[in-house]
Amino acid sequence: MKVIKNEPLPNKVECANSLKNVLDALYVLNGKWKLALILSLVQSSKRFNEIQQELSGISAKVLAKELKDLELNDFISRKVYPTTPVSIIYEATGYSRTLKNVLGELSAWGEQHREKVKLSMRKQS
Prior knowledge:
By secondary structure, the protein is mainly alpha-helical. The protein has helices at 12-29, 34-43, 48-54, 60-72, 100-124, and strands at residues 76-81, 87-92.
């Protein structure tokens, strides 16, 4: 784990501002699926069923709601093609790509945490 030494602690105002910023971000990105959906669509544009197959465990109802929320917050766009039957393609917007560093750090932390859990389980055995 990377520990930053000799860095001063934030003052009360900085801490309060950081907390507000984090709460704002979590309000928009809350839920189990939103970041995974963004990551999936940053990789490539997809149809509804393709997304549901990639994110095993998400119900159609929850997926529809999460896609709608992400579209309202400009993280994804929905393109309707007048074919028979109608084709709808979801894709990441430029705004969703502003989360690149966040997703990278979260991925690195998740890997680090998984290793910590594995090590902990070996010690218990």
